[in-house]
């Protein structure tokens, strides 16, 4: 009987080792998948950060260009200058008369 119990114990331990090995393999696989997903998320974050910085630089450049155009238009007569507002109101006045 002792030999039979010993064989049952050995079988039980073999089964337990197989189960734990499967769980370890599955857990390791899940950990690798999580790490790969984390890398993808980090790459996307870096790409978005780079796009944001490029758009911010373009925005600053366009903002500066607009300010320069406004400064130029304030200093000279013409379609963008101070006189143009008077011309627009005269044009509106003439249209209203017609």
TrEMBL record:
UniProt GO MF annotations: cytoskeletal anchor activity; dynactin binding; dynein complex binding; dynein intermediate chain binding
Residue runs in coiled coils: none
A GO cellular component annotation in the UniProt record: cytosol
Protein family (similarity comment): Belongs to the BicD family.
InterPro entries, sorted: BICD
Region of interest (Disordered), residue spans: 70-92
GO biological process, one term: regulation of microtubule cytoskeleton organization
Keywords, sorted A to Z: Coiled coil
Name recorded for this polypeptide: Bicaudal D-like protein 1
